[in-house]
Predict the structure.
Amino acid sequence: MAMKAEVQIQPVREQEIGALAEAIADEYFPGTSFNAEPVLDDCAITLSYGRYREAFDGMLEHKNLRFHIYCNLDRVQRQDSPRARFTVAHELGHYFIDEHRSALASGRAPAHPSRCEYESTLVVEREADHFASHLLMPTEPFRKLARAHKPGLSGILAIAEYFVASVTSTAIRYAKEETVPCVVLKWGPDGVCQWRWISTETFRVRLRTTFSDQSKLPVDCPTRRAISGEKAPKAGYFEAGTTAAAWFRFVNDYDYRNVIFIEQAITLGRFGVLTFLFPEEQYPLFKER
Amino acid sequence: MKRPRQDTRDEKEQIQFEQDLYRALRLEGLLLPETEGEVRAAEADDLCGAPPLALRDPRTVLKRVRSKPHRTSSAGPVASPEIEDNLARAAREGGKIPPEVEREMQRDREAAERKKYGNEG
């Protein structure tokens, strides 16, 4: 289980939502990548892409006994972009999760503009994000791909490409699947840390609180280089060795937890920078996978 | 003579209790017969009468076991005040949609519905 401090979905609930999404993937596009069309057709949901400024990524609206999804191209860029796919999958999550659909259809809850990809800290949004993650990236093929690639951003980029998913959602899923003990941090374009996901194993060894101010990090570290807008190397991301003490609070130089980590950082364009931290090798500190 | 230790006595009582409980459940017909003799006795008592129609064809049963999780398309009775509050909060916290954008959204929705349902939409 990966975690972010503010929001926690109950593990049983999370499992149920993931299973529901994967059953739908299996029913409508078995063995292939996410395709919204047959789902929308079957459920009589209409969809429109439009330029709706900055207010939201997507929205599920119930009116006259019908559901409609709006997808905002001003935020997700193209209809086939990874973020657009995640947004549509997220809105389908609001439809397929019984409590969400029921509340919307009954009028007890109004339609709401969604900010997808783990930007919101509300449980309902996290549940829809979790649904989208499993609809786009079913567990079995995800794990198979994760095992087949080198740990870190190179593997994450390969998985994201395979599923036509965004780097952010793939990295979070990578942490949640406990592929390696790791931390994923998202920095806004202003260089402020917006959120972080810590894998259970990293959390278990009490590497829990990272520095959230980039000025506390080494000047030439990959994260600061990416935030500064420096051109990324050929691989598409910056990479360097670092230490736990450089990233985690309450870990001093002589601490047994001060192991060597690999720090990788990738720019997400207007959405900021993503940092991926994982131990350089299988230290005894961490349980063997 | 040495007295038996307390934990040995507890263990014996536990075993006796489990045997009594098992017998009582069996007598009340609350356990499924397992051995050949038990099945014969149950059949004699007509506890294993013909199964309901829906269960007579094994293919029907297998189909149900292998079927996908059920989903509903109506509003349904599922209610969760917590989720409703959360959705309402999401609506409050979501970005403000300017009226002209709302109008555009409405137009887009109508166009999509016309395309899908024709004039009935």
Q: What stands out?
A: Chain A touches chain B through 47 residues (CB under 8 Å). The mean pLDDT of chain A is 90.
